[in-house]
Design brief:
This protein is an alpha/beta fold. It has eleven helices and eleven strands. α1 crosses α9, α2 crosses α3 and α5 crosses α6. Bound molecules: adenosine-5'-triphosphate.
């Protein structure tokens, strides 16, 4: 390996800049060149590259988003598009690719590797924590801190007005953000896709908390929750079936994807970048780097895409006990 290319793809997450910085500096440390690719696979197809040196990534470890920009690319889903990307990489002499993104981005990388034998390495960047082969994806911890901060603020106003708040958080089809931030924010109930509480039990539980003397209630709802109603219908249902609370909804939305990365995410990004580059230099390819049992480990990219992440059952129990 003489020259690595690095790109960010799919939905952005805090810590992507820190990961790019780490990839670039690890290349510099090992005296190989590094190319930044703008706009994910779109830029790969267009040859939108820039030589990056250790100095070109200064001052970005603390910045949210990704300075290389991210994109979704339909052209990369076609053989023609991927062939053009391969030609562009060849033209500039790049011989390895680090992809920072989610499972869709990894699928693209895997197909690209199968078609051209081009060495690829994945770094899991998404706030949802929905990727197999790592206990933490890049941006998850920052998003949790953002959500907890938002819950704390909503709690202040909820208690002043005796209100019940439904707060919708991101997380796609998994409840990692909701469960963790819900516990940390002292939520009375947490609704996640992995466990369907059912409407009756929800109302019972909220009634119990109200009669036990609580002046406010917070229900954290994962966007992928399967209780059978969207958050506004849920509000109406509870409004109609419960007395004593003024019920409100807050959908946190894209603020969860932004902000300065937490210390944890900066350290994780730095470790993942080093592991990704050094693994490629050792001749490894078609893996994703991840954090497992406190260590940097490689998982075959196909397994990372197909494997399912599991919710921590102990956390579910803790959340049940905390809401008594
Ligand atoms: P997020 O988790 O935030 O959605 P992601 O990486 O899963 O991130 P996607 O939009 O699913 O985001 O994928 C990003 C890009 O990866 C797509 O726009 C496309 O260019 C490429 N990609 C995804 N699936 C494939 C595929 N089957 N073949 C080729 N390229 C793909």
């Amino acid at each position: 390996i003489k020259k690595l290319a690095v790109l960010t793809s799919g939905g952005d997450s805090p810590g992507m800049n820190a990961a790019i910085r780490s990839v670039v500096r690890t290349c510099s440390y090992h005296n190989i060149e590094c190319l930044g690719v703008y706009r994910g696979y779109e830029g790969l197809i267009d040859g939108d590259f820039e030589e990056l040196t250790a100095r070109s990534v200064k001052g970005i470890i603390n910045k949210g988003g990704t300075f290389l920009k991210s994109a979704r690319s339909n052209r990369f889903r076609t053989e023609e598009g991927r062939k053009q990307a391969y030609q562009k990489l060849n033209e500039v002499g790049a011989d390895g690719l680090v992809v920072i993104g989610g499972d869709g981005s990894f699928t693209g990388a895997m197909i690209f590797n199968q078609e051209f034998g081009f060495p690829v390495m994945g770094i899991p960047g998404t706030i949802d924590n929905d990727i197999y082969g790592t206990t933490h994806t890049l941006g998850f911890d920052t998003a949790l801190n953002t959500v907890v901060d938002a819950i704390d603020k909503i709690r202040d106003t909820a208690s002043s007005h005796n209100r019940l708040f439904f707060i919708e958080v991101m997380g796609r089809d998994v409840g990692h953000i909701a469960l963790n931030a819900g516990i940390a924010g002292g939520a009375e109930e947490i609704l996640i896709p992995e466990e369907n509480l059912g409407l009756d039990r929800l109302v019972d539980s909220l009634n119990r908390s109200r009669t036990s003397g609580k002046s406010s209630s917070i229900v954290v709802v994962a966007e992928g929750d399967k209780i059978g109603k969207n958050i506004f219908e849920l509000k109406d249902y509870v409004d109609q079936n419960m007395e004593g609370y003024d019920v409100r909804v807050s959908v946190l939305g894209h603020m969860q994807r932004g902000g300065a990365p937490s210390c944890f995410d900066r350290v994780l990004a730095s470790r993942m970048g080093v592991k990704a580059v050094e693994s490629l230099l050792k001749g490894e390819s078609n893996y994703m780097v991840g954090l497992l049992n406190g260590k940097m480990e490689l998982t075959p990219i196909e397994k990372a895409i197909k494997g399912k992440t599991k919710i921590n059952l102990e956390l579910l129990r803790v959340s049940d006990i905390m809401s008594t």
